[in-house]
Amino acid sequence: MQSESRLFERFFFTEPLRIEKLVAGGDGLARPGGKVVFVPMVLPGELVEASVAAEGKGYRSARVERILEPSPHRREAPCPLYGVCGGCNLQHAEYAHQLEVKRRILCETLARVGGQGLRPERLQELVEAAGGSELGYRSRVRLHPAAGGGLGFRKRASHEVVEVAHCPIAVDGVNELLADPAGCAGLQAPLQRPVRVFAVPKSRCHGAGLQRDDPKFDPKFEGLANESPARCIAAVEERGDARQPDRRRGDPGQPDAPAPTDTGGLGEQKVVVQVPIAGKAFAVSPHAFFQNNIEMLERVIQEEIIGLSGERAVDLYAGVAVFAAFLADGFRRVAAIESDPAAAATAKRNLAGTGARFVRSTVEHWVTRNRFKGDDLVLLDPPRNGLGKTVTRALLRDLPRSVVYVSCDPATLARDLKALCGAGYVLDRVKLYDFYPQTAEIETVVRLSWSAG
Asked: Would residue 171 count as lying in a domain?
């Protein structure tokens, strides 16, 4: 029979844990006695009393029982459901500190995985972090029916749903829907399936929801919404067992295979939202992947895309073709490659009149049948699992002059940069754009140029 002290050691750490740093995913790292312990909801430098939550191979996960020495950067979370709802994991940190923590994680990941081409001292000088509105930014959400008849999010580390009446990080349209699902979006109660919601911030809603005879109505939206004009918010209940892939979580289609023909229910739900970005209007289906932080997306376009020019550009993983539309202002020939059927439904219309062409194909299939030889720019915005060997080999086969890489995962970005920089590409710019304040998600834009020497 185990002694009482041994049982205590099994469930409670015998000494307080000192948090060294935060790691990818947002958990704190402690090393009591040299053993690795991951602790959520903490900050670097804090001393905490914790209990064992789970054990893995070579590490433990802990649960904070008490903060003994709080960080000067700790604050009261702006959401009363923080810690219960699973949507956020950095609300306990001041926003400026969130940016610095993410910047450190990005630098450490690139240096650890990226090899000799990504030296720590070089990265410390090179990597910048850009923040924006820390609340009221999230336009795109997936809501679940709650037991009380409303809508909500999954609980932290659970499949249970917590009903949410107001989400501080969401835009006004999402919160209006949470308060009144039937009145705001015409959803029929009782809801049985999750709901995909896309809402444009009210400050950007000018010109959307207009009748066809209004001179401000953009004709590219004609016929996209079941004979109704585009709107500022769309809420679509998921149908049956059809899985709508989220490219950012790694569902880009099978390598070297033609694009799928499944429409994911789009034939029955032709609903679009009109999104104004940097002077252009885009049609977006709630079924398709689209960045949820429109303010930060516009900043990326203004700082990283507008002003680029040349003869030919290729936009891989193009989504609804936002980047391609802006590239068409500076390049004579632009090709946008995307396989997702929900994105393809509006991408062609978004490129109408720009001179850019849309190609419905998986990126892997396209690069095996086309060349980058002589291309001035290749823009990459891959899913979470990065480029993969097929696309990396194609880039190193043809060596386009410039590459802009938009990444949502520092580890796969570091792996891909190791291959590209190891073959002769030079890292010109690395900037973290904070698309997901209050969470540990890290979005990065990297510029590379080919060095023949």
From this structure: no
Q: Is 354 helix (H, G, I), strand (E, B) or coil?
A: coil
The pTM for the full model equals 0.88
The per-residue b/e assignment along 235-253, b for 16 or more CB within 10 angstroms, e otherwise, is bbbbeeeeebbebbeebbb
What is the DSSP-derived secondary structure letter of residue 302?
I
Domain contains 318: yes
Residue 107 in tokens: 């630098």
Whether the pLDDT of residue 216 is over 70: the answer is: no
For residue 142, the model assigns a pLDDT of 93
Contact 335, 360 (CB under 8 A): no
What CATH number corresponds to the domain at position 428?
3.40.50.150
Helices 388-398, 410-422: inter-axial angle, 10-degree rounding: 30
* Confidence class for position 17, pLDDT limits 50, 70, 90: very high
Question: With contact defined as beta carbons under 8 Å apart, do 85 and 156 qualify?
Answer: yes
Q: Specify the residue for token string 């990597």.
A: 127
Question: Could you tell me the maximum CA-CA distance found in the chain, to the nearest angstrom?
Answer: 82
Residue 414 lies inside a defined structural domain of this protein: yes
Is residue 245 situated within a structural domain? Answer: no
Residues 330 and 375 occupy one common structural domain: yes
Q: What is the pLDDT of residues 266-283, one digit of tens each?
A: 333 467 888 999 999 999
* Confidence at residue 80, expressed as pLDDT on a 0 to 100 scale: 96
Alpha carbon distance 357, 252 (integer Å) = 20
**Nearest residue to 90 via CA among 44, 48, 132:** 44
Tens-digit pLDDT profile for residues 190-214: 788 899 999 998 888 754 444 444 4
Between strands 425-433 and 47-56, the pairing is unpaired
Using CA atoms, how far residue 7 sits from 14, 93, 240, in Å, is 11, 34, 47
Neighbours of 94 (CB within 10 A): 16
Residue 90: which pLDDT band, with cuts at 50, 70 and 90?
A: very high
Helix, strand, coil shares of the chain as percentages rounded to 5?
A: 25, 25, 45
**Backbone angles phi and psi of 101, in degrees to 5:** -60, -45
In what order do the strands lie in the sheet containing 28-30?
Answer: 17-18, 47-56, 59-69, 36-39, 28-30, 21-22
